[in-house]
Specification:
9 strands, mainly beta, four-stranded antiparallel β-sheet
Length: 126
């Protein structure tokens, strides 16, 4: 019985841990409303300039924590003004201490980071 509890605890820890990724992926839980394309682009420079560190397209409503370093700004865009993508950035590597919340107005928005960012979560149609 103890073995089952230990396995369940380890599985819960693995789900909460940030997942490294290649930065150019579609999130695994894609929203069923694919007609409304949405993109989040993370930039090294301010005002959404400089190196495009990572891009995410058509992500869904997940609770996935992404580890990241060197982000100064984020650009969010959407093709239809129905439901808007948002991103929460965190100062720690485990998505626990909220630093900046970014959203989109109309079809596009660029948001500057409020401080050092070490992880983030993407949201759409939640």
């Amino acid at each position: 019985m103890q073995f089952g509890i230990i396995l369940a605890s380890l599985a819960a820890l693995a789900i909460a841990a940030p997942t490294p990724d290649d930065g150019n992926s579609t999130d695994t839980a894609v929203s069923p409303r694919r007609d409304n394309e949405h993109i989040a682009r993370l930039f090294r420079g301010s005002r959404c300039t400089g190196d495009n560190l990572r891009s995410y397209m058509n992500f869904g409503c997940t609770n996935r924590c992404h580890a990241v370093e060197g982000v100064s700004s984020v650009a969010l865009s959407v093709t239809h003004e129905e439901t808007y993508p948002t991103v929460d950035f965190f100062s720690d590597a485990n998505c626990e201490h909220l630093s900046t919340h970014a959203g989109v107005y109309k079809n596009y928005a660029c948001t500057e980071m409020a401080g050092e960012v070490r992880s983030f979560k993407l949201y759409y149609d939640c």
